[in-house]
Amino acid sequence: MTKNKTAYSCQSCGAIHFKWAGKCPDCGAWNSLVEEFAEGGASHFSRISEDKKITKKTDGRKIELVKLNGEAQDFPRVKVGINELDRVLGGGLVRGSVVLIGGDPGIGKSTLLLQTAESLARSKNQVIYISGEESVDQVRLRAKRMGINQDSIQLASTTNVGEIISSISSEKNPTIVVVDSIQTMFLEELSSAPGTVSQVRAAAGELTIFAKKNNITLLIVSHVTKDGQIAGPKVLEHMVDTVLYFEGEKDLHFRILRAQKNRFGAANEIGVFEMNEIGLSEVSNPSELFLTSYERETSGSIVFAGVEGSRPILVEIQALVSPSFMPTPRRAVVGWDVNRLAMVIAVLSNRFGLSLFDKEVYLNVVGGLKIEETAADLAVACALISAARDIALPSNTIAIGEIGLSGEVRMVSNLEGRLKEAAKLGFKNCLIPRANEKNKNFAALKKSLTELNLQTIGHVRDLSKFFKKN
Ligand SMILES: Nc1ncnc2c1ncn2[C@@H]1O[C@H](COP(=O)(O)OP(=O)(O)OP(=O)(O)O)[C@@H](O)[C@H]1O
Ligand SMILES: [Mg+2]
Ligand SMILES: [Zn+2]
After folding, report:
1. What distance separates the 2 farthest-apart alpha carbons in the chain?
2. What's the CA gap between 410 and 407, in Å, rounded?
3. pTM across the whole model
4. From the CB of 103, is ligand 1 less than 6 Å away?
5. What is the Cα–Cα distance from 470 to 465, expressed in whole angstroms?
6. What parts of the chain have a pLDDT lower than 50?
7. β-bridge pairing 176-180 and 93-94
8. What is the per-residue pLDDT for 345?
9. How would you classify residue 453: left for phi > 0, otherwise alpha for psi between -120 and 50, otherwise beta?
10. What is the predicted pLDDT for the residue at 120?
11. CB atoms within 10 A of CB 173
């Protein structure tokens, strides 16, 4: 057995390799391998310990097997008191759960957590806020700027996990602990630097075990990094119960908190906030945010009635088509999948007769929201046709539908929610998939929304009647 003295761990995905490479063979990140283990110091990692012979084998303790359909208790939850956050969490923080909050630097993670701490402290929870990044004074200054005045929040600035655990243990009944951020934390037992995969994992592991044992709810902040200098939240996602990501363009003032994973609620649920000097305020009707004010009809623009998690959201989609003098014309997308755009362009070219091969195409989802739904296909197709032909659709039009490769428009989920949101915001014309008519509750839905003019689309070629020059 050869003994590996050195190992490299990928700071992006956490994979361990014995040879250095410029590109991680597992996740494809560049320059993300960092030498982390020397002299067999990585033996606690399974990939490395595989070649150690397991010699001890004992009979395990006998565990009791129970019936699946027995009585179960619902998870005890603590409401944060910030509605947008509570919804994303699935109805509040579950006691003893571990929540990871990831996001780009400066997006507002500390701000959100300080507000969370305040709200929880106000409802008589024992909150401890540990900052590894900022001094106590810095946190106090932020709290002052935000008008947070809570004597009951306990504050400390440290990066030593051992210190944190022993300090928390000596506090009386702490229920919520905030650790900002996990990349600054380290365990004395490990020789690698804070922010490396092994430190981040071990620190999160120690804190998690401690929190679960003591029924403490743990909120961990994690930076998202693009350059792989420090380990990102990906290496922790599987260890925690809930993963929330903060999204948003830095120069726009609203932020979207999205549940990437949730063991206690629906994933993909979103909360919308607006950032201002006094912190993050909730946006309870986000559709208004993602629509530009509609006074004039402009070509290339249409509203898509999307669903994020359980919540319908209307967003404006804009397309711009211009002549290209490049061998490969540009296709640039903000807020949607560029491959999906390529597919819609190809379908329009083959099944609708709209050729864009010599055109540059830009697609923008207004407001910095990232849409992942394929139900946006039809809206994108409308925006592209409208932009290419310079024909505007009536400004009170929305479109929903997935497009297949043969040009057929496929059924979407939650049509009711989408249409109700559209009606609520005063839209009239709705281009929807004909396939949805087959649903047994469609007739009833149509009856209940008489203010809407529902136009069913079976195939992309059915769109041509909306784009006729007069
Ligand atoms: N004095 C101020 N007035 C208004 N807004 C401010 C002020 N100071 C900071 N902000 C806002 O707060 C944001 C930073 O928030 P916060 O520190 O919570 O982010 P973070 O995600 O914790 O960042 P980091 O990665 O540095 O920890 C800034 O981007 C800015 O929008
Ligand atoms: Mg911060
Ligand atoms: Zn990797």
Report:
1. 84
2. 9
3. 0.80
4. yes
5. 11
6. 1, 41, 43-53
7. unpaired
8. 97
9. beta
10. 93
11. 9
